[in-house]
């Protein structure tokens, strides 16, 4: 197995977790359930491209993207069970489209 860069993995995981929380409120409920799949489809190629750009093994980049996806989803699931973290990681996301009353 090619060596994985922990710094790249940490950055990809952080970006994925933050972006998912930011855009979750903008997505319709039907699309929201596919957010983990969307993350997987985006992070694996991004990891591969980053590895290629820095002259590293593309397989390592793909694995970093895959592990970042798993970590981001795992962080969200774990945080949703911690009372204090529930205030930060909400099912509505950080940005919302507004309430039905405003529309």
Oligomer: single chain
The DSSP helix count reads 4
User: What structural category arises from helix and sheet content?
Assistant: mainly alpha
Number of strands: 0
Secondary-structure element series? HHHH
What is Rg?
15 Å
Structure commentary:
It contains 4 helices and no strands. The relative contact order is 0.19. Helix 1 runs antiparallel to helix 3, helix 1 (6-23) packs across helix 4 (58-79) and helix 3 (35-53) packs antiparallel against helix 4 (58-79). The chain has one domain (6-87). It has 103 residues and is an all-alpha fold.
Helix/strand layout:
Layout: H1 6-23, H2 29-32, H3 35-53, H4 58-79
Helix pairs in contact: 1-3, 1-4, 3-4
Characteristics:
103 residues; mainly alpha
In short:
The protein is mainly α and about 100 residues long. The chain has helices at about 5-25, 30, 35-55, 60-80.
């Amino acid at each position: 197995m090619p060596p994985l860069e922990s710094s790249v993995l940490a950055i990809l995981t952080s970006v994925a977790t933050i972006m998912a929380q930011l855009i979750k409120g903008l997505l319709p409920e039907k699309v929201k359930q596919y957010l983990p799949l969307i993350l997987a489809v985006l992070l694996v190629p991004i990891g591969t491209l980053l590895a290629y750009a820095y002259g590293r093994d593309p397989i390592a980049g793909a694995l970093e993207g895959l592990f970042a996806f798993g970590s981001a989803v795992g962080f969200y699931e774990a945080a949703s069970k911690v009372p204090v973290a529930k205030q930060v990681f909400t099912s509505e996301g950080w940005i919302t489209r507004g309430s039905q009353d405003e529309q």
